[in-house]
Amino acid sequence: KNQVEQSPQSLIILEGKNCTLQCNYTVSPFSNLRWYKQDTGRGPVSLTIMTFSENTKSNGRYTATLDADTKQSSLHITASQLSDSASYICVVSATKDDMRFGAGTRLTVKP
Amino acid sequence: GAVVSQHPSWVICKSGTSVKIECRSLDFQATTMFWYRQFPKQSLMLMATSNEGSKATYEQGVEKDKFLINHASLTLSTLTVTSAHPEDSSFYICSAARAGGSGDEQYFGPGTRLTVT
Hints:
heterodimer, A: six-stranded mixed β-sheet, five-stranded antiparallel β-sheet, 11 strands, 0% helix, B: mainly beta, seven-stranded mixed β-sheet, four-stranded antiparallel β-sheet, 54% strand
């Protein structure tokens, strides 16, 4: 069973709308949680990284939250743009080199 | 900074041949590089971890004799898919951890699309 579960699996929204992606994990111990954006046919690009003590981190229109007690994280995208269409991957690290990948949420932004 | 490149970006080869994929950290030294495979609509799956100057550590189920990894320098790691089969067709992505960093900084390459005919 995957230790990092993302929902929804896919999402379609209209340009300009906001959306929130979810990530639940059971990884233990916990080192950090990252959100990546992966365009089709490209490598993942880091959006945010949060450690245990951080509960929110912003990067432009992307805001990630972390509740280490409930082991949940969310990625909120504000005022979506067509270029936001991509897969968003939640990655939880147990140790320095041990990264557990979620299956990703495929976001499609339509005009 | 922190740019990772891969070469080639895509390759088509015939079944039974070998293919080498290069992963380079362009503006930093990477003590550790990681190789991932990604099938369509699936997330990245770690294949192996390579440390400069030592043998790679392979994940369970990954054949080390089929996927040869060489990390000869602090800026270059190579993955060679030997005796390729159509089921090896996939998207291969490397990442590099910056030397001297916390280990939490991993930078991904753009990926290499391998198609075996």
